[in-house]
Amino acid sequence: MRLALDLLIAFNSLAVARASSISQPASDCSSLLNLTLAPGYEVSNAAIFQSETLNASGIVNTVALCRVEGTIHYGHDLAPGDDGPNTLTWNLYLPKPNDYNGRFIAVGKDHPTISMDSSPLRPKAVSLLDIPLGNGGYAGEIDEASMMTQLNLGYAVAGCDSGHSIAATGNSTSAPFLKNNAEVKAWIHDSIAMTTNLTRDLTTEFYTETPAFSYYYGCSTGGAQGYALAQLYPEMFDGIFAGSPGNWYSHLILSFLWNGLHTQRSGYMSQEVLDFITTKVVSACDHLDGAIDGLIENPQLCKYNITQLECASGQNSTTSDGAVECLTSDQISATKAIYDGPKSTIDGEEIYPGMSLGSESSWLLQETTLYTTYSALILKELVFDRSSYNVSKFDWGEDVLEVDQIASPLIDAISSDLSAFHSRGGKLITTQGWADPFNAALWPIQHRNQIQANMSGINASDFMEIFMVPGGGHCGSNPAYPHVPGTYDVLDALALWVEQGVYPAEIKSSDPPDGTNTTRKLCPWPKNARYVAGDVDDWVSYDCA
Ligand SMILES: *[C@@H]1O[C@H](CO)[C@@H](O)[C@H](O)[C@H]1NC(C)=O
Ligand SMILES: *[C@@H]1O[C@H](CO)[C@@H](O)[C@H](O)[C@H]1NC(C)=O
Ligand SMILES: *[C@@H]1O[C@H](CO)[C@@H](O)[C@H](O)[C@H]1NC(C)=O
Ligand SMILES: *[C@@H]1O[C@H](CO)[C@@H](O)[C@H](O)[C@H]1NC(C)=O
Ligand SMILES: *[C@@H]1O[C@H](CO)[C@@H](O)[C@H](O)[C@H]1NC(C)=O
Ligand SMILES: *[C@@H]1O[C@H](CO)[C@@H](O)[C@H](O)[C@H]1NC(C)=O
Ligand SMILES: *[C@@H]1O[C@H](CO)[C@@H](O)[C@H](O)[C@H]1NC(C)=O
Ligand SMILES: *[C@@H]1O[C@H](CO)[C@@H](O)[C@H](O)[C@H]1NC(C)=O
Ligand SMILES: *[C@@H]1O[C@H](CO)[C@@H](O)[C@H](O)[C@H]1NC(C)=O
Ligand SMILES: *[C@@H]1O[C@H](CO)[C@@H](O)[C@H](O)[C@H]1NC(C)=O
């Protein structure tokens, strides 16, 4: 503990030293408008904002900045050019030189916005179902709140709309950008690299010095973008944070479809039924890690037999006052299908991992919105190119092969060969909630195992780690677990690893939705936090074992 604190102090003073080492005067902000740029690149605005004058979704700039805005026109082959029919829109925030920490960071699209009531086990169904498509997984806007957060830490920050506008993400029945292969390719694979190519040069121009280190920070679709960068642009970033990664996007949407189709009609489970399951599962497995804290530390060690929740013959599934008592056999079957995940009808192979024990109370999204918005649109517009495609007819054999052939090359970033990123000294950190309502929590673990298997003689821990979050949601807290901290101290850990070679043996999480001072220890998988002694709500009471 002591050691980690000392290093953190050392790290912060490094930032100060670096900033004060910039002796040359920075370029004037507005002069960035006058640069001669290669064809396709355009700076449309460059202006100074004093501190406390910009507000991005409630996050206000605490430092003065030069805000630069512009576009990149790109063609069918994604090459920038004045006549490129597609447009990427970007922003660059440059803190004033004495607030600059010498580092560049590109932020990817963060997670879909889901506002939910934070009372235990009671998401507000109405807002839960109201996920905006644009700037959720489909992006289309710049994540200015994420940019502002990094700006206030002293980073030069770039962000983009992922290569298409919010209008191109359409509505619940049509997403026009999915019909444009260049835009589809830019979305996850290339938009951050295109943006970084230009904005990092502008950063160098402004401070008259190349950034000392370059980072990428993104979660959800942004996490997929992070793996794409490590795979396709291994030289570009020194450190990558890729949270809750949807990097096997083509099969992630098949898991949405599987879960959605298995819970229609008699397999449907209301929020009350889902809460009932989670309560039973958590109370059976909470103690396994030695701390009774309303959480399953490692769901893989929980051997809960869900069949015991099935109604006895003649038993009503609810009591006379409406409380859930047991599950119907169709609900039990649906539950098992979701834990198992989709399987191919050709060879029984896993198509995507299943959801984990303890995540049930968040499944309403899987039952309703995710398959209609993501699976149906991607299958209809990108894969089968048929306006009338009926997802209920999806063939879990042949159609999976079609998805692999058409969608995977455009939207997946699942190479197990990250050796180029490893050999240039890159570091990658992933966080993943065990109770993520979107992603099967096991996927990042499986993918890391694939990467490890590809590296003979090298320990993948030399350059990448996954931090699983017990009771964690999608890129932050899960409303069903309001006592679980939702802010992960990943960027400091990543920068220490990149810049000083300090291995991230643990990460602190804080800020639970319940407003308490609870902190928890996140450990590099396969290690888990183990209670040692002291306050169960204080991260120092645990070690990683
Ligand atoms: C930018 O160029 C314009 C027109 O050439 C000129 O008037 C202006 O002074 C220049 N601005 C800066 C900051 O160099
Ligand atoms: C920033 O905007 C949010 C709404 O997005 C508002 O609630 C908040 O009061 C604003 N903060 C400041 C300092 O203007
Ligand atoms: C969705 O967008 C398509 C294409 O623009 C349009 O034809 C359709 O009417 C829209 N549907 C809804 C529900 O707004
Ligand atoms: C980035 O710039 C380099 C050098 O100009 C170029 O080769 C590469 O294609 C560019 N990449 C993207 C994604 O724009
Ligand atoms: C699970 O529980 C059911 C019902 O209680 C029981 O019939 C079954 O044998 C159990 N399965 C296992 C693997 O323990
Ligand atoms: C089950 O309980 C519900 C709610 O109390 C009631 O409406 C229904 O009639 C009961 N069904 C049976 C078969 O008892
Ligand atoms: C889609 O297919 C299912 C299963 O065959 C069928 O029940 C449903 O009516 C179809 N939906 C439409 C809109 O055709
Ligand atoms: C790693 O992956 C690459 C690309 O798929 C493959 O060519 C190579 O054989 C793999 N190496 C090992 C050791 O598995
Ligand atoms: C890989 O490195 C990690 C972190 O140092 C260590 O915990 C783990 O035991 C190593 N694994 C192997 C197989 O050496
Ligand atoms: C958290 O708050 C509780 C009660 O308010 C207090 O007893 C405890 O010492 C605090 N813990 C930490 C680590 O600050």
UniProtKB/TrEMBL annotation:
Annotated protein name in UniProt: Carboxylic ester hydrolase
Example of a GO MF term: feruloyl esterase activity
Keywords: Calcium, Carbohydrate metabolism, Disulfide bond, Hydrolase, Metal-binding, Polysaccharide degradation, Serine esterase, Signal, Xylan degradation
GO biological process assignments: antibiotic biosynthetic process; monocarboxylic acid biosynthetic process; xylan catabolic process
SUPFAM superfamilies: alpha/beta-Hydrolases (SSF53474)
Family under the similarity heading: Belongs to the tannase family.
Origin species: Penicillium olsonii
Keyword Disulfide bond: yes
Catalyzed reactions: feruloyl-polysaccharide + H2O = ferulate + polysaccharide
Signal peptide feature range: 1-19
EC code(s) of this entry: 3.1.1.-
Coiled-coil ranges (or none): none
High-level lineage: Eukaryota, Fungi, Dikarya, Ascomycota, Pezizomycotina
Enzyme superclass (EC): hydrolase
UniProt cross-references to Pfam families, sorted A to Z: Tannase
